[in-house]
Design brief:
The chain has one domain: Hypothetical Protein Ychn, Chain: A (3-Layer(aba) Sandwich). Helix content is 38%, strand content 15%. It is built from six helices and five strands. The longest helix is centred in the N-terminal third of the chain and has 16 residues. It is globular and about 45 Å long. The chain starts with 6 loop residues before the first strand and ends with a strand.
């Protein structure tokens, strides 16, 4: 099977910068390699595609051992905002697009973007709450049908 006929399906369930960006970067890399890419946002991952939240994604500072700060400090007011500011500053230096721009770029590149119906129902969200680039809201069964022979990646 040549590279152009491979497919990946990426499931994003985390709503922090460090949970969302791996999914976006993996999907972008797949499209750059000529692979079909499908993104499925569920639970807190919906933050990445919800219109009123996608521009304000924060870094998780509490319970994140990679932050190398004690949990108590991570929970102080303003720590998440500070860590997010610092991370975004570094990402800007590398010309990494912000979440909303990345979603637009992926859609333009042909990636398919979907939301999880169960998570949408849990959080009382409607399709109108989502970015217009989201192709639809799928049940788990519908997602399985779409993934077909794709490799599934969880971020």
């Amino acid at each position: 099977m040549d590279q152009s006929s491979k497919k990946i399906a990426i499931i994003c369930s985390r709503g922090s910068l460090d949970g969302i960006y791996p999914a976006l970067i993996l999907a972008n890399g797949a499209r750059m390699e000529g692979m079909d890419a499908m993104l499925f946002f569920t639970f807190f991952g919906l933050e990445a595609i919800t219109k009123d939240k996608m521009k304000n994604i924060q870094v998780a500072t509490v319970g994140n051992p990679a932050m190398h700060i004690p949990t108590m400090l991570g929970g102080l007011p303003g720590m998440s905002k500070l860590a997010t500011h610092m991370m975004m500053k570094e990402m800007d230096k590398l010309d990494i697009p912000h979440v909303d721009e990345f979603i637009e770029m992926l859609d333009d590149a042909g990636a398919e973007i979907y939301a999880c119906k169960l998570a949408m129902d849990m959080f009382h969200l409607k399709q109108d709450d989502l970015d217009e680039r989201v192709k639809g809201v799928l049940t788990v069964g519908e997602f399985y049908e779409k993934t077909d022979d794709a490799k599934v990646i969880f971020t």
